[in-house]
Amino acid sequence: MCGMALTVTLAGCGTGRPEGNGVVVDSLGVQIVTSSVPAWRDGTDWRVDSIPEQVAGDASRTDGALLIDVVGVHRFADGRLAVVVGEDRQVVYFTPEGAVAARVGGAETFARPRMVATAGDSLWIWDGAVNRLTVLDAAGAVVRTAEIVGSVAPTGRFVDGTLILTGRPTIGLGEGVGLRRDGIAVLAADANGTVISDTLAIVPGSEMVVASTSDFVAAFPRPFGAQTSIAVADRWVQVMAGDSDELLRITPEGRLGQIWRLARPRRAIPLEDIREHGMRRTEQVAQLPRAVAERVVDAMVSAGLPGEMPTFDQQLIDATGHTWLREDAGPERRDSVPQRWQVLAPDGAWLGTVMTPRRFTLWQVTRDRIVGVWRDPNGIEEARVYRLHR
């Protein structure tokens, strides 16, 4: 590994010179897998049906439900869906036909729930407002709860049940203005939420624009900035920093063990997107009090724009061990265009592209289906399942 064992840099640390496609190079104990072209050829790639085979969330049905602020969707092997609904602070279970089978939780149970992991047929629900992790079985019964102390949140779990926690950046009053990218700590904890190791790694957080004075603080994603995504696969922590086509894999011991690279050109930021985003930000800033607006404008000018589009803004590991990386379409296009996912094999080789519907947030990929939430132009949400052809 390069540098300190607990710090992961943005550019990786390989010193080998890989050639060709899917070549593995050992460099200072780090395996480097580099792909310059996808392995799939015409007729061999995966595709998603355009019409969903399963839908839940039709409020016009007497046995349906209105879904607002969905923060997790999971499909069980028997076809039932579990949908974590932030607005109602509930987990709603649906039959394969879309009828409500059960509701779990509510304001007395959850304050700000979201799904952070699954294990078999159990759901792991994190409530950041009260620092509590709740594990539900397939029927919605509480298996156990755990309090996790500190400014951390669970991100996933190893196959042996070890929890992976990540730090939550904090921004206080009087911290200045401009671009900011704090490091995020990655730690391991037992099933009860007790930290069982030193910090595994410090990874770069997402790029933020901060406007802070002694009276107020505002923070928002940098326009076209890099977004960090962290996922847990078997016994690896996978980190995508968003500003390069590299995925870093960290071992349970906190060592950088593998780097997966896509050797391809970076994308330029479309001028039309810059103009549209500028107009939208101008409208938003105009609604702020004058003193706040001036500070926010100063922060945006100081942060500027990156020279190129970010790479990926989301990652997901499917049921067969493949890694899906979502191309970052930028703040003006994320919901208006179909989403492009680059798929990597379990050994890190670049396979190719899978397209998913626009306005669709992917939460789960099984062997033959994708599962997530779709939003119409008015923000009405539905849990949907689409057939995946491999």
Structural features, described:
The protein is mainly beta. The chain has two domains: 1-36 and 160-306, no CATH class; 54-147 and 360-390, Neuraminidase. It has two helices and 30 strands. The chain has helices at residues 271-285, 290-303, and strands at 23-27, 30-35, 47-48, 54-56, 70-75, 81-85, 90-94, 100-105, 113-119, 122-127, 132-136, 142-147, 152-157, 163-167, 177-180, 183-189, 201-204, 208-212, 217-221, 229-233, 236-240, 246-250, 256-262, 312-317, 323-327, 339-344, 350-356, 360-365, 369-375, 381-389. The strands form seven sheets. Strands 1-2-23-22-21-20 form a six-stranded mixed beta sheet, with no helix packed on it. Strands 3, 4, 28, 29 and 30 form a five-stranded antiparallel beta sheet that branches. Residues 1-6 and 10-19 have low confidence and may be disordered.
Count the helices. How many?
2
Radius of gyration: 21 Å
Instruction: Look at the helices and sheets and give the structural class.
Output: mainly beta
**Total number of domains:** 2
Shape: globular
Unreliable sequence segments: 1-6, 10-19
Mean pLDDT: 90
Distance between the termini: 36 Å
- Beta-strand content: 35-45%
Strand order across the biggest sheet?
1-2-23-22-21-20
> Could you give the count of β-strands?
30
Give helix % range. Answer: under 10%
Largest sheet: 6 strands, mixed
